[in-house]
N-acetylneuraminate lyase (Ereboglobus luteus), 309 residues
Amino acid sequence: MSNNNPSFHITGLIAAPFTPFDAKGRLKLGVIPKLVKYYKATGVSGAFVCGTTGEGASMSNEERFAVAEAWGAAMKGSGLKLIVHVGHNSLPESCALAAHAEKIGADAIATIAPSFFRPEGVDGLVEWCKKVATAAPKTPFYYYHMPSMSGVNVATADFLPLAAKNIRTFGGIKFTHENIMDYGLTLAAAGDKYDILFGRDEILLSALVMGAKGAVGSTYNYASALYNRVIAAYNAGDMKAAAAWQLESMKFIQAFCKHGGMNANKAILGLLGMDCGPVRPPMTPITKDKIAAMKADLEKIGFFDSVRP
Ligand SMILES: CC(=O)N[C@H](C=O)[C@@H](O)[C@H](O)[C@H](O)CO
Ligand SMILES: CC(=O)C(=O)O
């Protein structure tokens, strides 16, 4: 197995930023430095831009270049890692995104599987990933496993050894799935060499138990202070406290899901003074009434206290 930079690792909580849009749906990048400051205050270790939460699939490549550049500029000197999601259904577009990420000095790139025409099996998926990774030959590459969005559900425990053998820059996997058995087997196969970043914030603790060292998620944008308490309690061997903190995460995720999905999740940033605007079509913006009802529900469960740094 090869890895051309075995000392490179992504650890800790990586936020998947929401892409800030104005009311007309245009990029509104001015808020990004504020988010970076908040990340530093809450113990975030990097940003995974233009992924699911960042609505990368709903943006043009020109917009994705601009967003990646804005994050790179805002995080310069901060010690935070920049991971650029370069997934696209078109291979040349994905390669253009990968090459651009390398050019601007991204720490890593990641791609989700194409989802209109899908690769065949593990071999087809590795072949696709290799082509994307080759467009950024000096940048660690991560496969973004998210079957609920891509419809591509390979066992990552099978994917890992083949990817490690065939992709020179392979750095690991971002694992957004509830299958803890596959997660555990993948971690075991990865050893100390590759990072298997967990992607279901509401069950982070179950991944820590299996040995997770890093995680990427949407709620790490604003609730990392809480999740770092889950991690600290777990590391101290206090499982009761770790579970109690994790339950607070489950409760606030349940609370915002009652009022919407990504649109409600994105609106939480507005409630915390870092407004990132509405979601883009085909998703529908959340109404002011729903935001107010969500705020009341979040207050009821002590959300604003539990996420305060
Ligand atoms: C659809 C989506 O954005 N999934 C995220 C990561 O992949 C997660 O961070 C979830 O948003 C989070 O676990 C809450 O359900
Ligand atoms: C959570 C995540 O990794 C994403 O939104 O892409």
Remarks:
- The beta strands are 12-15, 46-49, 81-85, 108-112, 141-145, 170-175, 195-198, 214-217.
- The chain has one domain: 12-237.
